[in-house]
Design goal:
With about 375 residues, the protein is of the alpha+beta class. The strands form four sheets. A three-stranded antiparallel sheet has the order 2-6-5. Strands 8-10-9 form a three-stranded antiparallel sheet. A hairpin with a 2-residue loop joins strand 9 and strand 10.
Length: about 375
Amino acid sequence: MKDTILAQDNRLTTARYDLSLVEKRVFYFIMSEVRKKYIKGTIQQNLFEDLVLKIAVADLIKQVKGAYKENPDKKIENTDKKEVCRSLKALRVRSFDWDNGLDENDDEYDSLNVGFINWSTVKKGSAEVEVSKKLMPFLVELATQFTPFSLNVAMSLKSKWSQRMYELCQKWQGTDGFRIAVVDLRRMFGLENKLVKYAKFKADVLENPRKELRALYDIGQSDVYFEYSEDEKKGKTVLTLRFKLFRKNTMNVRSTNDMLLELIPVFRSLFNTDKMPKNDSFIKDVILQLQKYPSLIEPLNSRVKEILATGVKDDTPRYLRFILNEDIIGYKEKPMVSKKELKTSQNEVKTENEEPSVNPMETILGLANRKTV
């Protein structure tokens, strides 16, 4: 399937709003129609006027069916056409909020509240949708700072949080990652006034999107995924999150540093480092050792993936600790031997029963390779 690259103003990417999965998919389709007209040059002269789009209802129904296909457990109470009408109505009622971050009493304060569409009509097999002139500049890359993203990837995602997190990752394209305050992320997603406990917020907004984007990345359907860590805390309250972005380069090669950054949240989760100080100290020692001997990272990363592929069992942390102790903490680099010493040693020790020398890299994780879960 040919991919379509959409672009939206960064202010829309980080704006405060909350659309359902179906509503977001319908809006993505509206965005693609706006972009088609923009690229063809049919709306450039009237970009700052309200735009009326004529869309086949069948195309919107495809978006609804696609959302349900991605979520087979979702109960469908309405027919597809009724769901299209409901989504269009929701897009008219819902809006997004943006401001420039200044105090409301400041003379330079600037804010915007605008609906996703002005109005819609559905008649027979056709729908008409009006997009506000206030919204139009946000949907095409007129600004110097805009977010490009793949329509195919966005449409493949199974939750509204995954869609928003994907857009946020794309906003930071060209960087290794970003930091964001939890309160700002909650505000962007319309959760600042909802009594959502951090555990649920973490599961829905962070963990599930992370897994979903990683799965698409692994099969080549997404060019980005993220890992995250709880960067700053006040007591037990998480204040700031740090996101590390992983992208496929032309050689499709990840650095050992990327692999280490993948391993760190796995270790912290399995060993519950937030609540167990001894485990936290142990993992910090492991990380320091891996930083000292980066050649250990790739084989360890492969072994950990192999272990986790069978599922996390009750004894997985204990087994992994054994591997880390033996092969990482206990690893000692062999001293370098000069050519002269090596030649002398070879001449002295050459016997018929001489054992072959062992490549240090062949011993890395040797114990782990012999042991099975």
